């Protein structure tokens, strides 16, 4: 009910769906048996006597305990009073299996930077074109719904990452992708150059925002 409420009142992408699905695995045996009875399942998957744990069960449980322990250490290593960190040799399997998870949604602070992208295209004779709105003039105003600029939550997350200075390497690749896809879909209006802008604003207390800052993220061509 908590995550249904979050999904109905806030835009958090796949966050609430992922939590609802993973919570199913934490339901106790008694609840699963009641669901089995109510749904009148033909196969008795959850009821029955308690079976003696096998060697495989001990191994899988041990692996789960190790993974949980590593995740706790990774999270605590971000705290000043916790001095222990994983050895370099341990980080190789951690990175391979993507165990380096940490709670960063609201810590150490919420995301305050906000904004939207502008795709300022230029054709072979110097005419300007707005590749997002498909207009003969470039409109830098904020779209009515910024999230509708992205076809899926993965694209929205990519856009969020590109706003950070830690992911500047993504900007030229994304810029070339946009102009390449545009020319492929609009052979009669091909662009030779794209100015990739980010219109940045900061969310301030008391529902206020800063002045909009025009950032040129990248300039690329169709080559």
In short:
The chain is α+β, with helices and mostly antiparallel strands. It has seven helices and five strands, in the order H-H-H-H-H-E-E-H-H-E-E-E. Strands 1, 2, 3, 4 and 5 form a five-stranded antiparallel sheet that branches.
Question: Features of this protein?
Answer:
3 domains; alpha+beta; elongated; 39% helix; 223 residues; single chain
Structural notes for this entry:
Strands 1, 2, 3, 4 and 5 form a five-stranded antiparallel β-sheet that branches. The longest helix has 22 residues, at 55-76. A hairpin with a 3-residue loop joins strand 3 (193-204) and strand 4. The chain has 223 residues and is of the alpha+beta class. It is elongated and about 75 Å long. The protein folds into three domains: 1-50, no CATH class; 53-110, no CATH class; 113-221, no CATH class. It is built from seven helices and five strands, in the order αααααββααβββ. It has helices spanning 2-9, 15-24, 29-39, 55-76, 88-96, 153-162, 170-185, and strands spanning 113-122, 128-130, 193-204, 208-209, 213-221.
Topology:
Blueprint: H1 2-9, H2 15-24, H3 29-39, H4 55-76, H5 88-96, E1 113-122, E2 128-130, H6 153-162, H7 170-185, E3 193-204, E4 208-209, E5 213-221
Antiparallel strand pairs: 1-2, 1-3, 3-4, 3-5
